[in-house]
Amino acid sequence: MEIDDPRPVPEPALLPAPINGSGSRPGILPRAHLPLPDPNAGPAPTMLRVERLNLFYGGKQALSDINLQVAPNSVMSFIGPSGCGKSTLLRCLNRMNDLIENVRIEGRVLLGDTDLYAPETDVIALRKRAGMVFQKSNPFPKSIFENVAYGLRIQGQRDRTVLEEAVETSLKGAGLWDEVKDRLKDSANGLSGGQQQRLCIARALAVNPEVLLMDEPCSALDPIATAKIEDLITELKERLTIVIVTHNMQQAARVSDFTAFFWLGKLVEMDLTERIFTTPRVQMTEDYITGRFG
Ligand SMILES: Nc1ncnc2c1ncn2[C@@H]1O[C@H](COP(=O)(O)OP(=O)(O)OP(=O)(O)O)[C@@H](O)[C@H]1O
User: Fold this and answer.
1) What is the best residue among 1, 78, 88, 132 to mutate for testing ligand 1's pocket, by most ligand atoms within 8 Å of CB?
2) How confident is the model at residue 10 (pLDDT cuts 50, 70, 90)?
3) 162 CA to middle of ligand 1, Å?
4) Is residue 37 part of a domain?
5) DSSP states of 108-138
6) CATH code: domain of residue 167
7) Residues annotated as region Disordered (predicted)?
8) Count of domains for the chain
9) Nearest 5°: CA angle at 259, between 16 and 288?
10) What range does the domain containing 62 cover?
11) Is the ipTM of this complex over 0.95?
């Protein structure tokens, strides 16, 4: 759906709704992931903060006035119809849009205290802090070992023992070690699609990111490989923060603590996943999650 669609976009509902019990809706039943917030607690800690973000591809506006916060050690899903700006926003979170010509960005994105778009920000260092996994796994045409060691090697790490330890830890972290430990020198291209995707996750983990950005990481995978990645997401949030773009609402309901629903480049509603899928505050969110459009 294009951003110039004439239908009006509702006013965004940005802050989690007050707790007033949960309704229930047949169909998608999310797991409860995080305890509901204490209404008397102080401001919640934030890993990522998006403030008044607008993004233009040439003359075309793809994101409008996005305000969003992602809590540390949580999983946030971005959902919404095709073309609503999910991937564009995800790429703003580690400046991957810099690689696209004619992109203009207004507003701020903060990773911890770092203003991502400040002139002094080191983009290479930033992308180590916020790693990315894409829809289509993209291992390098190298061995399994070298794929995972790659990020450390370009940081100048030469110590074989350090590299071996990091490769093992990262492959274990990505749930792949047992499947590949006896063939680390084999080409990564010989792995199955699901294994290649976990290898790409291991490659991202090797440089110890604080945030993992995942753009439809399971869309090319079968249900078994998808389940492994989903389990991995739940394990990984113990040590980092994850933002995932998904077309699969059941997946959003299964893996994420928070869900943000976008339409036509605007954030319509963000809340605890449990509430988005049971008692959304905006009619359009309800229409989308119940399959009335999209
Ligand atoms: N490189 C680009 N140049 C110009 N326009 C782009 C570019 N990438 C995306 N767009 C446009 O920006 C809007 C948002 O696209 P984006 O891919 O972020 O949406 P999405 O919600 O991730 O879609 P999908 O679910 O289909 O991947 C769309 O209208 C798209 O056509």
Assistant:
1) 88
2) low
3) 40
4) no
5) EEEETTEETTSTT--HHHHHHHEEEE-SS--
6) 3.40.50.300
7) 1-21
8) 1
9) 105
10) 48-289
11) yes
